[in-house]
Write a structure and sequence with these properties.
alpha/beta; six-stranded mixed β-sheet; 18 strands
């Protein structure tokens, strides 16, 4: 790790100074920076503040440097010019490239099947191809990954090399990765610092991107006493320890644990960020570990107008719906089209409550028939906003018509879980760590992860 700040409110001017320090140290190490690639997250992570850091770096690097920006879309819909301006400020539109997961990638190699099998405890036994946008390996003097470390359903926490292998990944890599993570179990992944898939990605980065001059600028955001989001952690470095430091702090600040589960949770998804259930279902992912059996999740999503991010994925969601793991795996194994879109099958698994609690959507642009056809309940958006007004509800517990309702604005910024479910996930993660210690005894990171997990377990 190069340097970091945490547990303080890092204001705009301090963030700028830290980005200037990043550039200075990079020049000391790599010499004059003539070509730099900036890799921020996409518009669904607008509230991360990564767009502001990207703008700072663009101006700090200056006009003498050739700069390109690629929002790490994965398979999400590319930004419009208006969205780029909203997220990245005055960076010229021609400097911002659009990642296409089907056409823009080179295959660098693969994560071997035996490594994947050991990492997942035999749940997945196939190789994961390493496909990445060819810009990354096209001779830039520096590649800067920018983004927020926050709980994530596939990797435990978002960012770090997720930007490479999902954000700029190719179709085969994204598909193989997502179904691997889904079989490991979304509730086992959420909030864990190093998950089986993250372990696979660390292997791929070390083996295939060792020649790429990469720096990470990792953000952790928390809410103050007035419920305003503040940047309270900012980490700069080249190694996995930079990520681990950020993730440990993010777990402390963005994972909210409850002694007992909640009966009713209401989430609001900003219409400017969330336009499909593919991304809107973050409300499902981040709350599923806190909702009691027989409880209800209501998702107010005024921008949601479709299910998938691509037409073919939208069609698969409409065809099979969010109807539980057995149903989704049966479809995955029997339908060649869904099998080819393995990430969609994984998404169907992630987005289901497995019949344990009810999920009700209040979308701005989908009909009752459409929503109910995929296995969700439906609520009219106007009725939902009238009863659960996101402008007047306070974050946390509210009493509405004599009923306790827990309100979450922007659930993508955290993880809500019962202590019992988080403890179960920790125990699962410790078993994974023990497998990796046996496989890679020379890598100290696995012993360190085991120690941290043991420390966390001792707090229960």
């Amino acid at each position: 790790m190069w340097f970091y700040k945490e547990n303080v409110n890092i204001e705009h001017n301090e963030q700028y100074e830290m980005m200037a320090n990043l550039v200075e140290k990079a020049r000391e190490k790599y010499g004059k920076l003539k070509r730099v690639l900036l890799l921020p997250p996409d518009i669904t992570r607008y509230h991360s503040g990564a767009g502001n850091l990207t703008n700072m770096l663009y101006h700090i690097l200056g006009k003498d440097c050739e700069i390109k920006v690629i929002p790490t879309l994965g398979q999400h819909v590319p930004h419009t010019p208006e969205e780029n301006k909203w997220m990245f400020g005055d960076i010229p539109e021609e400097k911002i490239l659009k990642h296409n997961w089907k056409t823009d990638c080179n295959t660098l190699g693969e994560i071997p099947a035996d490594f994947v099998k050991t990492a997942t405890g035999g749940l997945a036994d196939w190789p994961i191809p390493v496909e990445i946008n060819r810009e990354v390996t096209s001779g830039y003097d520096l590649v800067i990954n920018i983004g927020q470390v926050v709980p994530h359903e596939v990797l435990g926490f978002a960012n770090h090399n997720k930007n490479y292998f999902i954000g700029l990944g190719g179709k085969n890599m994204i598909c193989a990765s997502h179904i691997t993570a889904a079989l490991c179990g979304i509730e086992n992944n959420l909030g864990q610092v190093i998950t089986p898939l993250r372990g696979c990605y660390n292997y791929a980065e070390k083996k295939y991107l060792g020649g790429v001059p990469s720096i990470y600028a990792l953000i952790v955001k928390t809410r103050d006493e007035q419920n305003n989001l503040k940047t309270t952690g900012l980490y700069v470095g080249e190694d996995v320890e930079t990520y681990v430091k950020a993730a440990r702090y993010a777990r402390e600040k963005t994972v909210f644990m409850f002694e007992k589960p909640l009966k009713k949770v209401v989430c609001f998804m900003d219409g400017r960020e969330f336009k499909s259930t593919w991304v809107g279902n973050k409300a499902v992912y981040r709350t599923r570990k806190v909702i009691e059996d027989g409880g209800e999740l209501i998702i107010i999503a005024p921008g949601v107008e479709r299910f998938g991010e691509q037409p073919e994925v939208d069609r698969m969601i409409r065809k099979y719906g969010y109807k539980g793991t057995p149903h989704s795996l049966e479809a995955f194994n029997s339908d060649p089209e869904l099998h080819d879109l393995a990430h969609a099958a994984a998404h169907l698994i992630h987005g289901s409550s497995e019949g344990r609690f009810n999920i009700t959507y209040a979308p701005g642009h989908l009909t009752k028939e459409e929503v109910e056809s995929v296995g969700f309940g439906y609520m009219d958006i106007n009725e939902a906003v009238k009863k659960y007004n996101p402008d007047t509800l306070k974050s946390g517990l509210n009493i509405i018509d004599g009923e306790e309702v827990y309100f979450i604005d922007s659930p993508s910024l955290g993880l809500w879980t019962s202590k019992d479910k988080f403890k179960d996930a920790l125990e699962n993660n410790m078993a994974f760590g023990n497998r990796m210690i046996a496989l890679r005894p020379h890598e100290e990171i696995w012993k360190q992860i085991k120690q941290w997990n043991e420390e966390d377990m001792s707090s229960f």
